[in-house]
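Much of our argument rests on the idea that a fold can be written as discrete symbols. In the encoding step, the backbone of a single protein was reduced to a row of integers, each denoting a local shape. This step matters because it turns folding into a mapping between discrete strings. For completeness, the protein is quoted in full, as a sequence line and a line of structure tokens:
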Amino acid sequence: MWSDRTPPELLRELVDKVRSVRLAPSAESMGFALLNEKLFQNPLAIVSYSGGLGSVSGPDGSVELPGAAFDVLHAALEAWRGLSGALLVGFLSYDLALEIEQLGSAPAQNFNFPSLHFGLYEAQAENLCRPDPSGTVLQPVSSGPLISHPDRPGFEAAVERIVATIYAGDIFQTNLCRCIETPLEPGREWELFQRLRSVSPSRYEAFLRIGSDQALLSISPELFLKVDAGVVESSPIKGTRVRADTEAEDLALATELVTSEKDRAELAMIVDVVRNDLARVCEAGSVQVTTHAELMKLPTVQHLFSTVKGRLRKGSDTIDLLRAAFPAASITGAPKIEAMRVAMREEGRLRGPCMGAIGWISLDGRMEMSVAIRTAFVTEGRVRYYAGCGITSDSIPSSEFDESSHKAAAFVRALGMKAGN
């Protein structure tokens, strides 16, 4: 359960194991990270989690950490807490929800990628130059084909079933994703990320080099969790309209979004889930909605978003907050647990790092994590991107598929390809 803290005996055992790994600048093969235009290089150590087993690696080798993913992350923070100014930079897979909630049988994993991966860094270089895409014709970086799981008929049928589930009273809404994947030419991961951030720059850009053939690429606009001086902040996004070619058309679409009863109701339900999640670990009465249904304009789409804030309760820390709020409400649904079960059943696939969380955790109690939307990961010669839609009782199957296509437009353009079904 989300409320299960790491047992003290297990935590001590894991902390001792983490401390047994010598920290020192490591080889380039251990990876690097670009996060919000800050470049992190030469990690002191890497903490990772795959297949139910954690590990910590340093320049002299690695140790295994038996325990659940959040236990492993908790131990790393405790073991390295004395390193002033150091940060853990990395990601949490959406599928770690299976370890903290009872979601039923998990789909079979059809890719090789860590469920958790953080590098420990002491310093970063800022202001990495952004490429200029003006006048550039993007040549394909993939030999194709571009495949959608499910395809359009399958996705629309899933929307119909979910709408029936909503009318049956089981849930109010859920987030349905489709996986868009294609082969990627070896060594083109960084180029693809640069294309993504050129086509659709965002607030939370991230590139994580996991291994020689594994990488995570994200251009997320959505804040999952931020903690600073004990104040917690989350900004869920809901409602989408495409950006238009003319100012008048763009304004009309923005007005339609802001006044849409469906989209505002969808956001309001998710805001309630966020308030509930934060209230689990925040001081009583401190959780407040500070802005609601504001307009966010991005290069290819525009959204509604709200901001919820609270004050972390004494005795609670960033790990408690992550357990309480993970995964983000906007990519789960309401009520949260049943909505996740419905989505997992309909998708029939693990999401991997997509729809999880990406960012940094300091050793002094601060944190900033984005929701891993507009995110792709590369492994075994293929790149996978997940596009999700909030499904409600008013959802029209064809419109939801079109919305997912709008959300994937920057990714498809960065590939130099054309969207299909």
Q: What stands out?
A: The chain has two domains: 8-126, 147-199+222-357+374-415. Residues 8-126 form one domain.
